[in-house]
Specification:
Mean pLDDT is 84; it is low at 31-45. Helix 2 (93-113) links the parallel strand 3 (84-91) and strand 4. A five-stranded parallel β-sheet has the order 4-3-5-6-7, sandwiched between helices. Strands 1-2 form a two-stranded antiparallel ribbon. The protein has helices spanning 2-34, 93-113, 134-144, 158-168, 182-187, 192-212, 220-242, 248-251, 261-285, 308-314, 322-341, 370-387; strands spanning 48-51, 55-58, 84-91, 119-126, 151-156, 289-294, 345-348. The chain has a domain at 54-180 and 257-387: Rossmann fold (3-Layer(aba) Sandwich), CATH 3.40.50.1110. Helix 3 runs parallel beside helix 9 (261-285) and helix 4 packs across helix 9 (261-285). 52% of the residues lie in helices and 10% in strands.
């Protein structure tokens, strides 16, 4: 009985400590956001830096926990052992958060599938707002540099549907260009307002990523709050950037920007389709398994029974991405049949939350609770087992 009471007391103490830590971090975030930002100090860097081939990567100088390539997690080995089975996860922030939440479980299950014949190592090459053809360029880049890859798990769909139209086209930016392409370019001209908004956004995104990676939903509350703050700053930054004069290097040279809205949307779908096809061909040419998974999203109609919390907090009709997602994502799903005919192993996970009425989303953009990410793994592993 004493042992039981002792364990119960220990659990309560741990829980209280975690709550206190979360509150301290949230207070720090609020201080960071609300502090005076009128200083005339020269801007020298941001949390995202331009990359000549990938669009952008995260900045190792301001985020020392990153690996030297500018991604989260352990650095991929240049000379991987033949006894290692190298898995890379590509995509946007959902793929990045999936890696943080499920990398051990995924690695363990693939290890069991291989019957311990090789050591499985899992690396993350997803970043917030990455969209095709950035994943294609990531794989090209890694192979050009001589890295070994055995399996590519590409988690995409939402970014490819929402960002080109809502964040790029509506702001006069080429839909082919990366998310917020104008922000780092304007930063190079010393625009302090853009810099401050960008660095705050990236800081809060990383804090949210940390909380959402904690086990047993311990960081769920703080992760949800930081996610909401992140989305608010992102929307404010988008509105601010709309009013800035953009040069040729920002907007891009594509003449198709004069096409109709429907033609633009069709082109967005085609770019995703072609990128997926080329990624699969590149993988096969290098004896790599390529698996693609379309992620769930709350703005895709009839894909989940929302909880009251989700209805109140995480499904916003005025969300910048909701309109484009509802129109473009369904077109992409229909095109998966065409990819399959071309031999691409693509799987639709957009309805895996359909029979769950509990809260699985944790912001009004696209991200999930730890259980939401865990629900993806059985489907991913089913595909891995089928394709290997």
């Amino acid at each position: 009985m004493r042992l039981f009471k002792s364990r119960l007391l220990t659990r309560r103490v741990v829980f209280v400590v975690i709550i206190v830590v979360e509150l301290l971090v949230l207070v720090t975030i609020l201080f960071f956001l609300l502090r005076n930002t009128n200083s005339k100090k020269t801007v020298v860097s941001t949390n995202e830096v331009l990359h000549p081939y990938l669009g952008y990567v995260d900045n190792l100088k301001t985020e020392p926990w990153l690996n030297p390539l500018g991604f989260n997690g352990e650095l991929i080995k240049k000379n991987a052992s033949p006894n290692e089975y190298v898995v890379i996860i590509t995509g946007g922030s959902v793929s990045e958060q999936y890696f943080e939440a499920q990398k051990e479980e995924l690695g363990t299950q693939i290890q069991q599938l291989l019957k311990n014949e090789k050591k499985v190592v899992v690396y993350s090459f997803g970043l917030g707002a990455y969209k095709q053809p950035q994943q294609l360029f990531v794989l090209n880049y890694l192979l050009a540099l001589g890295y070994k890859v055995d399996l590519v798990i590409n988690i995409d769909g939402f970014n490819e549907a929402a960002i080109p139209y809502a964040a790029n086209y509506q702001n006069g930016i080429s839909t082919y260009y990366p998310w917020f392409w104008e922000a780092p370019l304007i930063n190079t001209e010393g625009n302090r307002a853009t810099y401050l908004a960008t660095i705050k956004l990236e800081f809060i995104k990383k804090v949210a990523l940390f909380f959402n990676s904690l086990p047993m939903n311990l960081g769920a509350a703080a992760g949800s709050v930081t996610g909401q703050i992140s989305n608010k700053i992102q929307l404010n930054l988008m509105e601010y950037l709309k009013g800035l004069e953009k040069g040729y290097g920002v907007t891009g040279p594509e003449p198709y920007m004069n096409l109709s809205k429907n033609e633009i949307m069709t082109d967005i779908v085609n770019v995703w389709f072609n990128s997926s096809l080329q990624m699969d061909k590149l993988a096969k040419a290098n004896k790599i398994k390529y698996l693609e998974f379309l992620q769930p999203n709350q703005y895709l109609p009839n894909t989940k029974k929302f909880s009251e919390e989700e209805k109140e907090k995480y499904v916003k009709k005025d969300n910048a991405y909701a309109y484009a997602t509802g129109l473009i994502y369904p077109q992409m799903i229909k095109k998966t049949d065409g990819l399959k005919k071309e031999g691409v192993s693509v799987y639709d996970l957009t309805e895996i939350f359909k029979n769950y009425s509990e809260t699985l989303y944790n912001d009004d953009c696209c991200h999930y609770s730890s259980k939401g990410y865990a629900l993806m793994t059985p489907y991913i592993m089913e595909a891995v087992a089928k394709e290997m």
